[in-house]
Amino acid sequence: MAGSRRLSELAASVQARAELPAGPMVVALSGGADSAVCAWLAVQSGRQVRAVHVDHGLAASPALRQAAGSIADRLELPLDVRTVTVPEGPSPEGQARAVRYAALLDALEADEWLLTGHTRNDQAETVLGNLLRGSGLDGVAGIPRQRGRILRPLLGVSRSETRELATLLGLPWRDDPTNEDVRIRRNAIRREVLPMLAERFNPQLETALARLAEAAATDIAYLELLAAEVPIRLGAEVRMPVGMLAAVPHPVARRAIRRSLRHFDGHPGTARDVDEVLRLVAGEVGRRDLGAGLVAERSGAEIVIRQPETRPLPAPLRWTLPGAGWFDGLRFEAWIETAAPSVFPMSPWTEVFDADEVGDVAIVRPPAPGDRIRISGGSKPLADVFAERGVPVDKRSRWPVVESEGAIIWVPGVRRADLGWVGRRSRRYLWVTTIREET
User: Is the domain of 64 the same as that of 116?
Assistant: First the structure.
């Protein structure tokens, strides 16, 4: 009788604190008590539920797979078993987590939610672990209740409660034996660090850490709302306004930049890369290489983040003047006239030079680091010229540059150098033009 009363009280308490979605659910069923209770709660909701178990192919996997199957049978849940291979890497736990979530998300239908059995204890362990490595506010917030289509309905429930409830319900759960290995960082925090801190400083430490996570998550939600007001153009490249990033409070700018970085698959939005983009905003640098193969550049009034060009650069063209040739889909033509031009070119894709002031051969090539073009009174970095003329950042690496006798004489569509001007003493006039290849 007492056991029945305890079961009713505990079940009602856990159900009251669990947060389940309205649509169909898929439970990540590991075979442990937490995911078993999560599956039971989903079934009790009366909505469409199924389970997925990920077999990592490790020593303990067969026992956990059997436990997951027994739990699913007991709850009359359809079970989908996905087998994965954990790749080698510096963090086996991190590698396992990555392939596990990839398999779970791949198993979802378009309208389904993924439920995991993370508890308040998992939250406390995550927050403390993040504090120990010196994380920012997002790390203090720990495990989010929702991220995309992933929900954690048990973050307000303790691990001791799920173990007791699963046992009272007669669910055949099983502990993962790898959780005993204190050589694994998370296990050491769970079994050694947290108990020591709780005994010496605060018996309710796990609750306190979970409360800290909730407070941080509330602040983050507000900052994210402010950051969402920063207009960001998302596509193959990301564009952000320099002026607004400089004007908003620093924490808001950081979040807008992090959101932009995470638009690219595989980029975690690290603090280092956010800092590098902020250096661009401040005008300290013009281009930075970021993690995950991204490049960030300041282009006029915008910060542009993109993946670098993967095609090989076009080979240089040796262009005999006069004469014609092809460079990266552009046809270059040059001819000489002896009559002075009655009308000078109105298009930046056509120019006229004093033929006796330039060489007989030009080289058409992609831009090179350190390129400068001669202007009145000196020279200017070609990167600055591109920015002033609004040449898109992702187009610059392949933009044609025309060089003669070791000096850039013309950047088609952008500007000519301050040399070879036609004057009263000119006798031969070299006309040059570019025509885009028909596609």
Answer: yes
**From its phi and psi, is residue 406 left (phi > 0), alpha (psi between -120 and 50) or beta?**
left
> Residue 412's beta-bridge partner residues?
none
Please say if the pLDDT value at position 310 is more than 80.
Answer: no
Tokens of 17: 């604190």
Per residue in 79-96, pLDDT tens? 999 999 988 867 778 888
Nearest to 271 by CA among 248, 287, 295, 255: 255
What pLDDT was estimated at residue 2? 56
**Paired residues of 433 in beta bridges:** 333, 350
pLDDT of 7 higher than 50: yes
The bridge status of strand 330-337 relative to strand 415-416 is unpaired
The residue to which tokens 């894709």 are assigned: 349
**Cα–Cα distance measured from residue 79 to residue 310, given in angstroms and rounded to the nearest whole number:** 42
Asked whether residue 237 is assigned to any structural domain, the reply reads yes
- pLDDT, tens only, 16-62: 999 999 999 999 999 999 999 999 999 999 999 999 999 999 888 99
Q: 298 with 322, same domain? A: no
Picking from 274, 306, 338, the residue at the C-terminal end of a domain is 306
Q: What single DSSP character describes residue 189?
A: I
pTM: 0.71
Instruction: For residue 272, count other CB atoms closer than 10 A to its CB.
Output: 8
User: What does the pLDDT average to over 108-118?
Assistant: 95
Full domain range(s) for residue 257: 231-306
Tell me, yes or no, whether 138 and 245 share the same domain: no
**Judgement on whether residues 100 and 62 belong to the same structural domain of the protein:** yes
Any alpha helices (H) in 389-425, and if so which ranges? 393-396
Residues 23 and 154 in one domain: yes
